[in-house]
Amino acid sequence: MEKPAPTTYAHDKDVHPSKLNWGETDPCVRGPVIIGRDALSINIRNAIGAYGGPYSIYRGLAVAMGDLSHNHRPNFENTQPPIEIKQQPQWSDPSKIVALDPFGHLTNEYFKKEIDEGLDIRPTIAITRAHMLVPEIQEEIRTGGIAVDGKVVVNETGELNVHKGAIDPVWYLPGVAARLKVDEDFLRRSLFENSGGMYPELITRPDLKVFLPPIGGASVYIFGNHELLSDPDVRLTVRVHDECNGSDVFGSDICTCRPYLIFGMKEAIKEAQNGGVGLIIYFRKEGRALGEVTKYLVYNARKREGDSAAKYFARTENVAGVKDMRFQALMPDILHWLGVTKIDRFTSMSNMKHDALVDAGIKVLERVPIPDELVPPDSKVEMEAKVAAGYYTNGHVPCPTELSRTVGRGWDEFHH
Q1: Catalytic option among 120, 324, 333, 344
Q2: What value, to the nearest 5°, has the Cα angle with vertex 185 and ends 182 and 187?
Q3: Which one is catalytic: 45, 239, 326, 367?
C-alpha cells in the first residue's frame, strides 16, 4: 500500500499513523487519539484537528506572543474524574458513538505509558463535582416548590449538588457520514471548503479517520446518583438544551430558552429527589448553530417588519438560507456514553431532538412542553410559530389565520 502523502508540515516525511481502531472494547487495542504536532507525534498522529476545539486558536495566540511554550506539556496529576462513568456496551458500537471519544476522560489512565514517553495525548472529556446557585431554584426552595434534601441535590443553603462534565467533540468521520446519510468524501470536502481550507488533511489524508473539529462541545449536569443513569428501571428526566447566550445568561425575553432550561433543571432536581436521576445536556450551538451575528440580524428584520409568528421561520431562512443547522443526529452520542437507553420525561418540544433520540434506539416515554405560564410575553411569537410548524404540544395548535394575528413588539416599541 502506498504511503499517504505528507501535507501541511515540512517535516511530515515518514508518515506511519498510530493505530486507532474505533469501536474496540479494549481501550489499549482501540488506541489513543494522537493529534500532537511535536517532533515525536507528528508522523504517528492518527487524527486531524487540534485539542481544545476553538480554544486551540487562543493557544496559537499565546504561543505567538511568547506567553506559552510551544512544547508545553500539561501536568495531569490529580485531574482524574471524582466519579466513575462505567464502560457501557455502546462504547464499542461504532454506530452508537461517532461524535466523541468514549475513553476521553480516561486518557491519563489508559495511555499513561505513552504520555510518560513524551507523546502529547490529552483528555477530551473532564468530569468534576460542583455546587450551583440558581436564583430561580432558590426562589422555588423559598416558596416550598423544591424541598431541601441535604445531600441528594439541594443542601441547607440552597446550593445544588451536581456532577458535571465537559465534552469536546471527536468525530469518527465514517460514522458521522453514515449518521448524516452522506458520502464520507463529500463530507470531508464540505468541511474543508466551508472552514476556509483550515485542515487540508481532510482531503489529502483519507487514512486519518478521526477529526477534532474547531467547534464548541457540550456540558453535562447530573442530578442524583450517576450510576443509575444506565438502569432502565430507574426514572430519568432529561433536558437537552442548545446554547442561547442572550436568554440563558442575560435574560432576553424574545425566546423561551432560559425559562425552559430552568424548568428542565427543576424537573431534573425533583426526579432525583424522588429516587430517579436528572440530566441536563447543554450544547454550544448558539442561535440554532447559525451563530449570534446571524441571530441578531434576524431579530432586527423581525422587529422592523412587525414580529409575527407567520414570518418567524421565513426571516431566518432569508438571512441564513436554512431555519436550523443544529442537525441533532449526533446529539444522542452523549446519552449512549452515559448508558442511557430510556428517558421517562423529556423536557423538550423539539421534534428534531425527539426523533434523533428515537432513531438512536433510546425510548422516550413522555414529552414535556414548557408550561404556558413560563413563556415570556415577547416570546409568544416564537412559541406559536414553533407549535404551528409541528413542535410538540399538548395544547392548542394555531391555524394560519390565527398566526397572522399573532404580532410581537415591533422596532419602534423596542427602540423606545
Answers
A1: 324
A2: 50
A3: 326
pLDDT digits (tens, 9 = 90+) for 154-163: 988 889 999 9
Q: Is 307 a catalytic residue?
A: no
What is residue 403's predicted lDDT score, i.e. its pLDDT?
A: 47
Q: Is 326 a catalytic residue?
A: yes
Q: Per-residue pLDDT tens for 171-187?
A: 999 999 999 999 999 99
More confident residue, 347 or 412: 347
Distance CA 153, CA 159 (A): 8
AA identity, residue 173? L
- What is the Cα–Cα distance from 337 to 155, expressed in whole angstroms? 29
SS (H, E, C) 194-255: CCCCCCCHHHHCCCCCEEECCCCCEEEEEECCHHHCCCCCCCEEEEEEECCHHHHCCCCCCC
Compute CA distances 57 → 49, 53, 167, 276, 383, whole Å.
Answer: 11, 8, 18, 41, 37
Give the H/E segment covering residue 57: helix 55-64
Q: By percentage, how much of the chain surpasses pLDDT 90? A: 68
pTM of the model: 0.90
Q: Residue 378 and residue 302: Cα distance in Å, rounded?
A: 12
